[in-house]
Amino acid sequence: MKEYVLKTNSLTKSYHGTFALRDVSLVMEPGKIYGLIGQNGAGKTTLMRIVAGLSFPTDGNIELFGQSGEKALQAERKRLGCMIEYPSITPNMTARENLTLHRIMRGIPSETIENELLALVGLSETGKKKAKNFSLGMKQRLGIAIALLGDPELVILDEPINGLDPLGVVEIRNLLIKLCEERQITILISSHNLPELYQVASDYFIIHQGMLKQSLTLAELEENCKHHILISCDQPEKLVSVMELQLKTLNYKVMPDKSVKLYDYLDNKELVAKVISENGIFVTNFSVEGDTLEDYFISVIGGDRNA
Ligand SMILES: Nc1ncnc2c1ncn2[C@@H]1O[C@H](COP(=O)(O)OP(=O)(O)OP(=O)(O)O)[C@@H](O)[C@H]1O
């Protein structure tokens, strides 16, 4: 049986009859970075708060490390580190003082973890500088260091790249990849921006109006966005042999509905059309498809940018 770090079963949360989450069922496997993508108000923070035990579902339930039920979940949440909504940083304290404060609050005796975490998030050299004078990226990294106190196996980060400049995004990305690879930490990271999260995450959950619209891997996301010529015809087997023998390409994929995605000849579509027609194949669709990440996201959530 597969081991899951997190499993949600028909998770639902409503506020006075309005759904913030609706029937969300998803699974997270160990050692992966999951991106939770949705527009403002999609339900990302609500989901994270329920997992962290800061809010409770109206319906459905969650399993953390295979355990369910509030008592067991409370125990399993010791294996969880969170940064939800904003980093819980005291502005008038240095990076180290912030870490010490949270370490003591969490009852962690060892001071050595502070040096280790400051080095890990690249804040060792900040000395006496107060957190209020940090850049947004530095604040986010300090928030992540706080979330890492207690050596969590699952880390939940709500919008940690929101508002960062490209360099800041790269810094956070490298940090998350390091955490995942060196410490085998599973990470759930939310964002409203799919292109920004692209390549940070290995798997994606797309959420819209409280509903899980799609759960897909990075490879599936790339496949869905890759530009291709989509051909539907009356003789798909013949089309395949024409592509291989006459167009000399294996760079195609036959879809379950027997349409064919051809990833070559995007710059010479006329030749493809000519060869198909010369072979007496009747074509019902011949179009160039493929989305930018942003377009793809919009198409998954129903083409509604402002909902
Ligand atoms: N305490 C609350 N009381 C009433 N409604 C709430 C409450 N918390 C969240 N909501 C509503 O639930 C929906 C989902 O909110 P949530 O904060 O989870 O979205 P989000 O995807 O995190 O958005 P954002 O990116 O803006 O933080 C929104 O419509 C929001 O207004």
Category from helices, strands and their pairing: alpha/beta
**Residues in β-strands, percent:** 25-35%
Distance between the termini: 39 Å
CATH superfamily (homologous) name of the largest domain: P-loop containing nucleotide triphosphate hydrolases
Family: Belongs to the ABC transporter superfamily.
Organism: Paenibacillus anaericanus
Protein name: ATP-binding cassette domain-containing protein
GO molecular function, one term: ATP binding
In words, what does this structure look like?
The chain is of the alpha/beta class and 307 residues long. The chain folds into 2 domains: 6-217, P-loop containing nucleotide triphosphate hydrolases (Rossmann fold), CATH 3.40.50.300; 227-289, Alpha-Beta Plaits (2-Layer Sandwich), CATH 3.30.70. Helix content is 35%, strand content 25%. It is built from 11 helices and 13 strands. The chain has helices at residues 44-52, 70-76, 95-105, 112-120, 136-148, 166-183, 194-197, 218-225, 236-245, 269-278, 293-300; strands spanning 6-15, 18-28, 33-37, 59-64, 80-83, 154-157, 186-191, 203-208, 211-217, 228-233, 252-254, 260-262, 283-289. The strands form 3 sheets. Strands 5-6-7-3-8-9 form a 6-stranded mixed sheet, with helices on both faces. A 4-stranded antiparallel sheet has the order 11-12-10-13, with helices on one face. Helix 5 runs parallel beside helix 6 (166-183). It starts with 5 loop residues before the first strand and ends in a 7-residue tail after the last helix. The mean pLDDT is 91. Adenosine-5'-triphosphate binds at residues 15, 20, 38, 40-46, 192. The site of adenosine-5'-triphosphate has 11 residues, from helix 1. GO terms for molecular function: ATP binding; ATP hydrolysis activity. InterPro entries: AAA+_ATPase (IPR003593), ABC_transporter-like_ATP-bd (IPR003439), ABC_transporter-like_CS (IPR017871), P-loop_NTPase (IPR027417). Keywords: ATP-binding, Nucleotide-binding, Transport. Residues 6-234 form the ABC transporter domain. Belongs to the ABC transporter superfamily.
